[in-house]
Amino acid sequence: AVTQAYLQLRINDAQHALLERTVAAYTRSAQITRNRFDAGVAARADVTQAQAQLKTAQAQLIDLDIQRRQLEHAIAVLTGRAPTDLALAPASQLPALPPVPGLLPSALLERRPDIAAAERRVSAANAQIGAAQAAYFPTLTLGATGGTQSSALARVLSLPNQFWSLGPNLALTLFDAGARSARKAQAVAVWDESVASYRQTVLTAFQEVEDNLAVLHILEAEARAQAEALAAATESLELVNNQYLAGTVSYLNVTSAQTVALNAERARLDIMVRRLNGSVALFKAVGGGLL
User: What PANTHER family has UniProt attached to this entry (predicted)?
Assistant: First the structure.
């Protein structure tokens, strides 16, 4: 929970930095539009469009400030502090992405608490089978008295074969209406169940690792494609701005290009966030790290 809250805080910082750049760019565009309107070469509609776009971005920036304060309070509470006792300095960049491993040894999964617990349950159930099996044998006290065997064991060993099957004391041990057999069968059933649970736990762990590895590899390719899209959107915005200053297009073209560029930047940031979350999920899936 702390890791996720911290990541959300840094995501908020990155979004804040993006909107600050956006507000600065929109402010320049609004001033240019105002100057052109004052010079009589731009329509009043261009000015109002520029102002509306600027104020919308400013409102979104203020909303991020609210979210950041709430995230700081959440981190403080999760770390055992009062909400007002924690203040984290803003960071304009997201945490660096760890490298995506190509192969992972399966032994890493043994560190997972769920797998370790399931393995212990299998061992405990196996021990119960041994205990149930041992209950078939007579329970006697073995010792030495004057260099001879104890009288209890001596009596048992000296009994005739018929008494082993019919003797009143041993009959209680050897013939108990199937109680010991039932207890052994129950122990075996518990062991089978624990083995099945252990197998399913291991398979689930493998799935989680494979899922997150696949996500990280695919998102890496998606990030490259989105970077190219952002570069194209940025170049398009620059060209449209120049065309507007030259009077060949309306301001509507500028706002459209600005929106495309902002959305491309947000998409790039969103992919980064998903890659960070995928890395955290992978570390959790392998039991707390890759080393």
Answer: BLR4455 PROTEIN (PTHR30203:SF33), OUTER MEMBRANE CATION EFFLUX PROTEIN (PTHR30203)
